[in-house]
Amino acid sequence: MSTDFHVHLELIDPALVAAGGLTRVVDLGSSRPVEVPGVEVIRAGRMLTAPGGYPSDRPWAASGLFREVAAVGAKEAVAEQVADGAALIKIALNADAGPVWDDAVLGEVVAAAHAADRRVVAHVEGVGQAARAGQAGVDAFAHAPWTERLPDALVSDLATRVTWISTLRIHSGADRERALDNVRRFHGAGGRIRYGTDMGNGPCSGGVEQDELDALREAGLGEEELAAAMSGAL
Ligand SMILES: [Zn+2]
């Protein structure tokens, strides 16, 4: 089993993915189901976000791969994704790019997803968002946190209940160093890491990316741990 746990099939030529050698991908944000011959696709449907929140103003999201959720309407928004084939619910908590839900609405969205038997994967960006997401009961982070060095106590806490999808290759410079530092300590604390590249964001081959594997090695994962990071569940 060779899984990329963070892709956007709408933002890449599916033929590249079909030829790339992955056996399974997790699509963390698309406006519609995209199939890839020979590859199992698990999808999250549209990314749920606060009104005017990330990624509603991004050109790559113009297809409508997000869905704004106001103070009321979490249940309906989750139900729409489930009806559209979502096996997971993706949410955005990006305080650096725009408004995010308050704790009450965030809690309602997570509760609605869990009531529908769907796990929640969050894009967390901006100081304090990783802690908020952890408190709210989010099941996984779509990216290893990179916008702040998380305190050890928070890392240890997150290691007991939140899976991190790596996506280290999308960063450079200080962002990359912070992400590596967080992943190294999260891994050391026994946290569960899954291989993911945010395929569709920047240059990508459509297959397994060696630089993502190398970054995970740099963060302390051994070969068996890398194999585990590409298989199993979130
Ligand atoms: Zn993404």
Put the structure in a nutshell.
With 234 residues, the protein is of the alpha/beta class.
Question: In words, what does this structure look like?
Answer:
The protein is of the alpha/beta class and 234 residues long. The protein has one domain: Metal-dependent hydrolases (TIM Barrel, Alpha-Beta Barrel). Helix content is 33%, strand content 17%. It contains eight helices and ten strands. It has helices at residues 14-20, 74-83, 103-115, 129-136, 152-159, 173-188, 210-218, 223-229, and strands at 3-7, 24-27, 40-43, 47-49, 66-68, 88-94, 119-125, 140-141, 163-165, 193-194. The chain has a five-stranded parallel sheet. Strand 1, helix 1 (14-20) and strand 2 (24-27) form a beta-alpha-beta unit. Helix 2 (74-83) packs parallel to helix 3 (103-115) and helix 5 (152-159) packs across helix 6 (173-188). The protein is globular and about 45 Å long. The structure holds zinc ion (ZN).
Key terms:
234 residues, TIM Barrel, 8 helices, globular, binds zinc ion
Number of domains: 1
Please state the second-level CATH architecture. Answer: Alpha-Beta Barrel
Helix content: 25-40%
Gross morphology: globular
- CATH class wording: Alpha Beta
CATH superfamily: Metal-dependent hydrolases
Number of helices: 8
- CATH fold-level topology: TIM Barrel
Major sheet: order of its strands? Answer: 6-7-8-9-10
Give the termini separation: 14 Å
Strand content: 15-25%
Structural class: alpha/beta
Main sheet summary: 5 strands, parallel
String of helices and strands: EHEEEEHEHEHEHEHEHH
Mind telling me the C-alpha Rg? 16 Å
DSSP E strands, number: 10
Provide mean pLDDT, rounded: 96
**Bound ions, cofactors and other small molecules, one mention each:** zinc ion
- Flag low-confidence runs: none
